Amino acid sequence: MTLTRPTWPRPFVSSALLAGALDITYAIVFSYFRSGVAPSRILQSVASGALGRGAYDGGTRTAALGLALHFLIAFIITAIYFLAASGQRWLTRRPLLTGAVYGLGVYGVMNLVVIPLSAIGTRPHPAAISLATGVLVHMFCIGVPIAFGARRAFAPAAAPFTTSIR
Question: Torsions phi, psi of 66, nearest 5?
């Protein structure tokens, strides 16, 4: 009996790290250029989901906690898609489409369920530019990289390139 190594761990980890990095980079850069918000404040805002307003008084420690929580969420979001794709292979056939739809769903769940149920609570509707960029980032910087990672992990290997002369 030969044991084969699973193909999913590396694509899973790389997809979660990429999606998490792209998302937090967007949040930091967008907030800095739009409103002059310091990167540490963005990370503390993530931690405020667990700690409430006190996260803003915690300095570097709560910023680090926010970064850790952010990547935990990225790994959970990636795990959900990978679990679904492992049983529903159609999710790996068109990763641009399925990833964009998944990212849109992630945006909705995060903003309509997770954040309101967290210590942050309900928030006012975002400005149009924040809404538009937030949706697009979730679709193409979170959902799509995760879907391409799942395709790499679960799609059947392509047939080798062959040529025929007739």
Answer: -60, -40
**Is 2 domain-assigned?**
no
For the entire predicted model, the pTM comes to 0.90
Write the pLDDT tens digit of every residue in 123-142: 899 999 999 999 999 999 99
Domain tally for the chain? 1
Give the Cα separation of 40 and 46 in Å (integer). 10
**Count of Cβ atoms closer than 10 Å to residue 106 Cβ:** 23
Of residues 151, 89, 80, the one with CA closest to residue 114: 80
**Residue 52 falls within a domain, yes or no?**
yes
Distance CA(106)–CA(146), nearest Å, equals 12
Is there a contact between 85 and 91 (Cβ–Cβ < 8 Å)? yes
Residues in the chain: 166
